[in-house]
Amino acid sequence: MKNIVILISGGGSNMAAIVRAARQGHWEQRYGARVAAVISNRPDAGGLAFAREQRIATAVVDHKQFDSREAFDAELAAAIDRHQPGLVVLAGFMRILTPGFVARYQGRLINIHPSLLPAFPGLHTHRRALEAGCRVAGASVHQVTAELDFGPILEQAVVPVLPGDTEQSLAARVLTQEHRIYPRAIESLLRAGA
Ligand code: GAR
Q1: Does the active-site annotation cover 113?
Q2: Catalytic position from the list 113, 126, 142, 179
Q3: By three-state DSSP, how is residue 47 classified?
Q4: What is the total count of domains within the chain?
Q5: Residue located nearest, by CA, to atom 1 of ligand 1
Q6: 194: pLDDT confidence band, cut at 50, 70 and 90?
Q7: 112 near 178, Cβ under 8 Å?
């Protein structure tokens, strides 16, 4: 069984899209893959309730309980490794990971970022796209490397920036596309035998 472990920090709509795609696309029968656990660094992450409803194992590793990134990442890795992951999926996980953590999961760690990378790594992507006068925006799924929001791109989606767009309206348009490309990227990896 190929276990997928999903890390979240908030609402978890990408995580939910992946869970639904796994069920609807019969990932278990087709690829021997299942979403084994959802882990959050925030106890109040909205997505945890959805995961519990789906009877998916959940865990919280609260970054506020640790005084260094290394200590947090070590505990996070221990929580992940309990599920023997074939794939670790960052889905709105808002912590910068240490190089040691990234190296541990190299080749099986992916992320979604709400911009057309390599444009706008980091925070406030939609605000920065609007301020720059971009005519298009989007999202990228990529392999995670030690450099923040960098690494080989697996999928991208492009949306128009419309007159009168706000950060919120643009974010919502992009998020809809994230829900399409993230499951698609994962399924491609599974199909390729990842
Ligand atoms: C998504 O837009 C995701 O791309 C972004 O956070 C949101 C999480 O939404 N991730 C990042 O900004 C990572 N740097 P969700 O919790 O509803 O999936």
Answers
A1: yes
A2: 113
A3: helix
A4: 1
A5: 92
A6: low
A7: yes
